Please model this.
Amino acid sequence: MIKIWAVCLAFLCGWGGMATTEVYYETFGAKGDGETDDFSAIVAAHDYANKHNLPVKANDNATYYIGGGSLTAVIKTNTDWGKANFIIDDLNVENRGAAVFNVVSALDKIKLQPITNLRRKQAWLSLKLPYDCLFVAVDDKTKRYIRYGIDADKGSPQTDVFIVHKNGRVNKKTPIIWDFKQLTSLQALPIDDSLLTVSGGTFTTIANRMPGEHKYFNRGISIQRSNVLVDGVKHKVVESDGQSFPYTGFININNCANVTVKNTILSGRKLYHCVKANSKSTTTGTYDISITKAVNVSFINCSQFNDILDPVYWGIMGSNYCKNLQYDGCTFSRFDAHMGVVNATIRNSTLGYQGINAIGQGTVLVENSTVNGRYFINLRSDYGSTWQGNIVIKNCVYVPSAGKAVGGTVIGGTNSGRHNFGYKCYMPEKIEIFDLTINDENHPEKYAGPAVLGNFNSGFKDASYQETYPYIKTKEIIIKDLKTASGKPWRLSDNPAMFGNIELNKL
Model:
């Protein structure tokens, strides 16, 4: 009884003896000495804060050690980690799939009336909602994104995410992109009106030492609440000298909308090799940023601790089933949309050796940015190099392969027209390039100048080539002020036979 009273008194007085309405980890037993496992105390502090709707604040002078227990600290209130340090030790983890922190909504889940189907670009749903919601629709009988290449698979269930307002109107900026003739599942996830902020803190992950297998660790900050700001978080990694299981991401954003990460420094993860289920050995993607089934996600003024040009480190970000992703003022090794994005914007940013990779729909806008990838934009060939929409490039610099002696290609990809990806594949309908400088001074001996379009199909030598699954070609290209450091003129493509019907406008 005396111990319980002491804990309550400590909470009421606050850390440091001053009255407060903030919850501190120390109140619940955290030592903050960098050696004692504080995980249980951290979890208890957030549980209390959630029940009483109080913010959580870390001690600026503390180093909190988080061991491998099968625990998750659930965050439902504003959290300020300030100048505190956190050590996440992954050497002996009981549950590699359990996030360390999970940001979730306090709003009640919604039980929907039966909806059996949806139409592409459907504008309304016949329902009323207590609040705006993010809808997640799945048809597991229809397969999309049937991957091609070394990581080939049998596809993934047709999935879409979109915002529906209280009155049933589908948000025009998050349109339904598939016909759902049969819905396996349909979730309505509440979008909070209030902004939840998670800020500060320097986190150091001691990476696992597991053998090279395709089994992911999810030991970071999982964000599953809409309307969240992550501000000023730092993440460092002590990597394994040998092998390691890959990581889904330190910041995992999924099943939510309207999330902004700003003033945050993360880490590209070391590249490992693994054996997958098909018994093939391959490099395995390991990330510090993962975005899945999310809309309206922005990274603003963010960077990474390690060199964005160093191929020892894998690309920092991967995403699936997203809409309206944005980098603004970021310095990252890459932008990547695996299984589709609707609208991608990159402004005032620098991308490293893996550049910009995407497939999807809508508009890719790249403005006031520098890209160091093999291509300025790579339309991922493992998913059909498809972009159903437009690409706009404004006032940018392209450094092919970060200055190596390679030829330059503005937009690259591959599609033979003979693989079924689970959807019709498109090249961008319109490509607009305004003021692009290509730093190609270091180039191969027989370099004929940069190409706007890559050789998307080396087998396409003339009109006699037969495509089983037709690849819809670009209709129009507009170019104004495309300059080269080599002084060599740009060309349309390394495969002019494939693109003879394009309307090319030089302004």
